[in-house]
Amino acid sequence: MIFYAFLKKTFGFSKTQSTAIENNLMKKFLIVGLGNIGEKYHNTRHNIGFKIADAFVKEHGGSFETEKLGDIAKLKIKGKTVLVLKPNTYMNLSGKAVKYWMQKENIQVENLLVITDDLNIDFGKLRIKGKGSSGGHNGLKDIQDKFNTGAYPRFRFGVGSDYSKGRQVDYVLGEWTPEEESVMIERIPISVNAVTSFINAGLANTMNEFNGK
After folding, report:
1. What are phi and psi of 85, to 5 degrees?
2. What is the distance between the alpha carbons of residues 148 and 209, in angstroms, rounded to a whole number?
3. Where does the entry annotate site (Stabilizes the basic form of H active site to accept a proton) (predicted)?
4. Is residue 47 a known part of a binding site?
5. 92 among annotated binding-site residues
């Protein structure tokens, strides 16, 4: 009703026109994989968001092109328009790219899904939530700062916390061990299924099916 009132007041649209526009907007999604650009970061724990985004786009037959503030893939999945973004701003400025594409494409915040690593979750475990704090993650922190809220869906892939005191940065920017990489490769398809479920089945159903897996 708020959206209808805005369209009526601003553009003089009827309720039918407003409903059609709102329905189209609700069919548009932005999936964001967080990471750092550059070959030296390619296989680091902090770049799991990029890896899942790459696998998701490949699974759905798409490809990335470099556009403003990142690499973008544009997909069609069961009648829905899905944009997949890998920001090229580096992790600490991820919010700038996310905000730009959200505004450019008129995507509703409930149709945003941010994919990131998480030190507070056991390695390989998945956790999807509709809101939350940054948990000390600089990418999530910048998105929260740019949107002035933590109320947006996020998909966290656990990387564990097997590091000594004061070595957190070295750990997240370190490469997977061979044992971790073997398990991580098995977890990527499950992660892709979770992202697809978010688009097709919604947040609540996806949380019920994939959290803790």
Report:
1. -120, 135
2. 30
3. 117
4. no
5. yes
Q: What per-residue string of b and e applies to 122-144 under the rule 16 or more CB within 10 Å gives b?
A: ebbbbbbeeeeebeebbbbbbbb
Compute CA 208 distance to the chain's CA centroid, rounded to the nearest angstrom. 18
User: Tens of pLDDT along 42-84?
Assistant: 999 999 999 999 999 999 999 999 999 999 999 999 999 999 9
pLDDT tens-digit map of 84-130: 999 999 888 999 999 999 999 999 999 999 999 999 899 999 999 99
Contact between residue 88 and residue 66 where contact means Cβ atoms under 8 Å apart: yes
Report the SS3 class of residue 44. Answer: strand
Q: Say what the pTM is.
A: 0.85
Which residues are known to be catalytic? 46
Spatial separation of the C-alpha atoms in residues 38 and 59, rounded to whole Å:
23
3 state DSSP class of 36: coil
152 assigned binding-site residue:
no
Contact predicate 74/201, CB 8 Å? no
CATH of range 29-210; options 3.40.50.1470, 3.40.50.300, 3.40.50.12780, 3.40.190.10: 3.40.50.1470
